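Morning!

This is the sequence you dropped in the shared folder:
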Amino acid sequence: MEKIRVGVSTCLLGEAVRYDGGHAHDRYVTQTLGRYMEFVPVCPETEAGLGIPPANP
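The structure's back. Tokens below.
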């Protein structure tokens, strides 16, 4: 079965790209929907030219 390609916010995939240096990982998206979909990471903030703060140590 071919997976459906879907654009998903990069922070929902677990990448630390949020304004506060964190992420908003959603396990339902990555584990459940990930069985059927191929994710294309999209970050509207960086696409608009906004920066990503450094990760908190």
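Headline: The chain has one domain: 4-47.

More detail when I'm at my desk.
O.
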